[in-house]
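Possible regression after last week's pipeline update?

I re-ran a chain I had predicted before the update to compare outputs. Posting the input and the new output here so someone can diff against the archived version. Not blocking, just want to make sure nothing changed silently.
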Amino acid sequence: MMSGFSLLGILRFENEMLERIKNSTVEELEKLAAEIRQRIVETVSKNGGHLASSLGTVELTLALLKVFDLPEDKIIWDVGHQSYPYKILTDRAEKFGTLRQFGGISGFPKTSESQYDFFGTGHGGTSIAAALGIQEAQRSHSGDSKVIAVIGDGSYTSGLALEAMNNLDGNGKNTITVLNDNEMFISTSVGALSKWFSRKLSGQKYSSARREIKQMLSKLPPAFHGDKIIDIIRKTLNSSKSLLTPGILFEGFGYQYVGPIDGHNLRELIETLEDIKSNSEPVLLHIHTVKGKGYEPAERDPQKFHGISPFDPKTGEILKVSPSFTSYLSNYLPKLFRRNPELVAITAAMPDGTGLAKLQSICPSRVYDVGMAEGYAVTFAAGLAVGGKRPVVAIYSTFLQRAYDNIIHDVALQNLPVIFMIDRAGLVGEDGPTHHGLFDIAYCRIIPNMTLMAPRDEHEMIRMLEYAVSHFSTPVAIRYPRGGSIGKRAYNRMIPLKEPTGELLSEGGLPLLVVSVGAMTNTALDAVGRLAGEGRPVSLYDLKFIKPLPEELFRLISEKKIQRIVTVEDGIAAGGAGSAVLEELSGRGICLPVKIIGIEDSFSTHGPLDALRDLEGLSFGKIYDVLVNETDHLNN
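New output (post-update):
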C-alpha cells in the first residue's frame, strides 16, 4: 500500500504516474480525486476554460487509468471538454498551470502535445468513429488491446455518433464506449435521446436490484455455478436491464449494454471496467455523473461553468464581464422578433453561447434548440423557410463548417431566405484551432445566391440584421467575432444600410487604399491614423459587404488613381476577402499590386487574442509595419 499519495507526489515522479495509479487503493484514489478537483478549479479560475465537464469526470479518469494499460490501450475523448483530469494524470501535471495560455498546453486533446492524446478533438460526436478506425487499424498487431471512447450525452445527438454506432458490427470488436450521462449538453439537454437517457430506473433501483441478485448468486453452492438455471437468471437480468433502461437502444446497434452506474463511485467504476475489459464484443458502459462535481458553484450552475472566463474560486463570480457582439445580439433580438412575427431562431445546443437564451425565455415557441446537430439545424431552417418563416440560424463559425453541404444544397440551391448569424468568426483566443472561425469568409463567399456581410462593431451588426430581415428573400450570412468591438465612430442606427455599400473612413493623399473587413477595421483605422500623423496619409475603406463587393470600392480605386491596395481580414487568406478583391480587379482588367493581410495557411494556435493577432500579422504593430512598407514602395 502506498502512503502519502498526493498530486504533489505525482509531480515529483512524473514518469511513474500511471504505475502509481495502478498500485493505489480506492481510498488513495479518492483522496487524489479531491486534489485533482482543487487543482482544476485553481487553474481554470485564473485561465478560464471548461470547468464543469472536467470536474464531472475525475473518478472516471482515475478508474480508466487504473484498469487499462496506456498507451497499448487507448482512450479517445469526445469534444475534449472533460479531459482536464486526464491531462493532469498523464504527462502534463507540471504544465497544467499553462492551460490555454500562449505556448502552454491546449484546452483540448492534441496529438502533438502528448503521446497519450491519441486523437485530437474539439467538435462533438467524433470519438466513436475515431475509436472504430483506430481499433480497425491496429487489429492485426495489437492483440486484445482496447480502444475506449468517452462521449457525453450531448454528443450522442450528433449524426456522426449515430453513423459510427451503425458500423459497430463491422469494426467494433475490442472497443468500449463510455456514455457520460450528466443530463446536460452545453446547456440544458434537448430531444428524444436526452429523454431516453433520463429514465430514472437507471439509477438506484436498478443498481440495487442488480447488486442483490449478484450477491444471491455468489452465495449459491459451487455445484450450481455451471447450472443452466444460473445462466437463465443472468440472461434474464441482462434482458430486463435492456427493457427497463436506455440499454435497448444501444443493444439494437450491437453493443453489450452495461449500467447505468454511479460515475463518482470509484470502487464500482473499477469493478465494472475490470468486468468488461475481457469482452471482445463492443460494450457500452452508461455512467451517471454530476456536471461540476465537487465545486458547489459549478454544481449549482453547470451551464455558467461549462466554459467560463477567469473567476473568483471562493465565490464563483466572473472577474470581468465585457460587452460583446453576442450579448448585444441577445438584448436586441426580442425587440426585432416583436416587430417581425414570422421570425424564428435556431441554435445547435448553444442558446447561451449564441445569444438566444434571453429570446428563448421570452418567445419559447419561436426558438429551436436542436442539440449538437448543425446539419439538421440548417436543413430544418430550410424547411421553415419553405413554410413561410424567416429563420435566423445562430451557430459558431467553426461548428457551421459541419453543415456545409446543407447550406449549399438545402438553402442556397433553393435560394431560401435563411439568415446565418455566424458567431466567433476569426481568431477566438484560448480555445485554439478547433474553435477559431478562420474559414467562414472563404466557404460562404463561393456559394451562389449567398450574401455575406461583416460588421465592424455591435451597432453595425444590428443594422445588417435589420437590413437582412427587411430587404432579402435570399440567403444572408453575417459574421462577427468573439468579444466586443465598439467602433471608433458612432452610428445613427435608424439610418438604413445601403446595398451593397461600404464606407470610406479615411481619405489620404497617397495612392494607397486599405480595404478592411469587419472588426479588423478598428485596428486598421488606428494604423492608418498613425501613418497620417507621420505625414503618410492613406485611404481606408470598410468593406462591410464581402459578397457582393461594393461597386463603390472600384469607383474609388479609379477616381483616386490608387496604385497599391492592402486588404486586412481575420480569416484564412486563401479564398478570403482579399482574394475576392483580386478576382474582381482581374475581371475588370485592373492590374494593381494587392497585399493580403490574413491567416497564412495555418490553423493558428491557442492563447490570448492579442498574442495570436501578433503571431498572425493582425496586430496594430504588424499592420502598421506592412503599411509603412507599402508607402515606401510608393515613394521609391
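Follow-up from reviewer: compared with the archived run. The chain has 27 helices and 17 strands. Marking as no regression found.
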